[in-house]
Amino acid sequence: MNLAIPLANSLHRATLDAIRRQAPFAAMGEDAVLWLVQRLSVAYYAQGEVLLEPAEQPPDALRIVKQGTVDGVTADGHSVFQLTVGEMFPLGALLAGRGAANRYVAETDTFCYLLPAADFHALLAMSPAFHDFCTRRIASLLEESQRAVQSEYALALDGEPRFARPLASLIRRAPFSVAPDTPLADALAGMEQARIGSVVVADAAGAPVGILTLKDVLARVTLAGVPLATPISAVMTPAPATLPDDAPVADALVLMARQGIHHLPLVKGGALAGVISEKDIFALRRLSVEGITSALSRADDPARLPALAQDIGDLAHSLLAQGMDAENLTAIISSLNDRVTERIIALESEPDRKLAGLRWCWLALGSEGRMEQTLATDQDNALIFDAADDAQHAALLAFAQRVNARLDACGFPLCKGGIMAGNPPWCLSAEDWQRQFAQWIDHGSPEALLHASIFFDFRPLAGDAALALALRAWLNRTARNNPRFLHQMAGNALRNRPPLGVVRDFVLSEDDAHPNTIDLKLNGATPFVDAARIFALAAGSPQTNTAKRLREAAHALKIPDAELADWNRAFHFLQLLRLRHQHGQQRTGLPPDNHLDPDTLNPLDRRILKEALRQARKVQARLAMDYGL
Amino acid sequence: MIWPFGKRRLPALDASSCARRAALARQKIDLRMPLAGLRWCVVDVETGGLDTVRDPLLSIGAVAVEQGRIALHQSFEAGLTQTQATGAANILIHGITDSEQRAGQAPHEALLAWLEFARDSPRVAFHAGFDQAVLQREAHAQLGLSPRLPWFDAAVIAPLLFPAAAPHCRQLDDWLAHFGIAAYARHGALADAYATAELWLVLIAAAQRENIITAHQLQRLTQARRWLSVNLN
User: Fold this and answer.
1) Is B198's CB within 8 Å of A43's CB?
2) In this structure, which CATH number among 3.30.450.40, 3.50.50.60, 3.30.420.10, 3.30.930.10 belongs to the domain B34-232?
3) I need a labelling partner for B62 at 20 to 30 A (CA). Which of A427, A441, B18, B153 fits?
4) Averaged over B104-122, what is the pLDDT?
5) What's the whole-model pTM score?
């Protein structure tokens, strides 16, 4: 039967447009999506109907939710996740060629697109974007979200005059370009000599026809083993994105963010006028890590410090806007906050004669101890000293209280729970700290476990670090030899479940103060932090940073790299959401917190949030397995 | 069944078109098949007005439902060339402009393609009487064919299966809204046919829940209802 179907009728076009609003189809070539569309069929499932049963055989088709909501239900009958418009299942089973592990039930009346399994595999082979998405699901969702954020912020910067300047004003040197037949050896030597990160390939008329960056060299030349006599045209990125040199800086920012490029050739009258890099653009910003660090080290007047601490917040906002990832950003915030604290400690301790000759160490606890501070951060600190008589003890306490007050003035509010060095229970000798830690480990009461979760992330910040290191060594030995304690910590950590919902996507807070929100810190980041702490204590690791703890533990626990990478991406996405949420609050003059209404997220970020919480469950499942819980 | 005698002169067909027309003579549809096992052809037409006798047929859109699913590659869209453009008033409704009206396929070509697409399949439409009348009129006028094939009217079947929704659902849009089905474009033949096909999936599922297993049973149900409404009102 010859159906005489035109290549793409209005139904195919409309389906193409609808499906391309969802990741990963947005990032795929139109040809590939059209190929997909012409192989789809549409099925309807009434509410309560089962779409897919757990089976021995691999599933016959990929399902993409077109309309409605589908619940994933485990073998023991727990509804564990929800899939909404644009989400695909059962990806894992299709990829691995095994039967589906879960039962899928229509939560509401649902329409799904079905793609036959053979076509799914053909599409994987055909479209790198689709392949990437399916095999590195959370990773590629994150990349898309990151790009969206960068463009958004870049657009929001329109009002700033420095981003309205023409790009030509950023050109710092005459353009360096080579002809397409230039051997790689010559082109690379030229780059080295000019100390530049990219080379433009230009035709006889001077128009850019390609670009090669140092990053490309690593993948396409060095690792690929391409001989250096090869003409550069064989490995360059052809037809690079360019902008006219009179375009505003903001255009370059958007283009770089959208295309994920770091070097941009500028053209004037069709010919190369210069190349700008991302660095050139971000150098426009007044604030920098180096600038604040050196201002802090020069500040002799404690009264100047609050203004500098304010600069840290502004810098964090700007780095966030530039799309810096959460792992680096929280590390930068923490290390700059360290500098502020160090400076305050120096200014308060150096002139204090009563402290002369005493060995003491200032300990950072909690998120600061883990180098994971966000924009909303109160003080968590303690003091350890070698030995002191009563007068000396009183002097140490008075010093610590002055530091706490100064930190408060710099925007680090006093800890509501009183966990501060200036509080007598937390200003102890090394011997008393061991006694205190031992008591928590032996006791295992909820209060002891809570304290352990804050104090056991301690890190030396100023003073005599040897005191802290000795305490860490003692703690690791003691905790390791006390499986009952680790078991209790694990049980406690597992009581905090990620709020993935059965009825809706998320379980929202019923707390009157923050209705319809989820607590990104307590229910999002904390499961990772708690699990990482237990893994580290069990392994006797001195690490306090969550990502680093997980990396070390993964090695010891034989967790596959891909799984570990997903854990860390998920954790850092949650941290990034916290930062973005707090940034938004601070911009509108609200005190920053961690209570996010998921309805305020765009659909992509909502999906990543769900995926991140699913990863939190996986980490907890691993913990539960290790401790037989 | 074929009605071989045209009252008017038929357009002259070339040899291959004649062969295609002849191949459409015998069609088999077994209405005792299960609802989900049948191939359904869901169709919508756009015309130059609401007069099934005089107003010109402008376009045909259709999708096939097979094994209870709409296969997107089995979709049909044809515009018919017009000897003269219809009035401006209808352009406002259909959005088919003068130049588009003139741009389509030759009518006999479009009709052949449509009948081949719908071959061996019961037809489904919303307010099917209208689509049926116009399509049969044109098949007769252009090809001299008068196939007698079963038609199912979603506008009649939907209220039978969802009586609670019936009082506030009259038009296709009402039923689409009731089931949350979004049409991708309004008043395009293929867009409406596709939306009707999604509605048809819902109706088939509902019929099966009511133990209506075969197309024949569904046909009897609508006939009984028609008898009741004729004889009781």
Assistant:
1) no
2) 3.30.420.10
3) B18
4) 90
5) 0.55
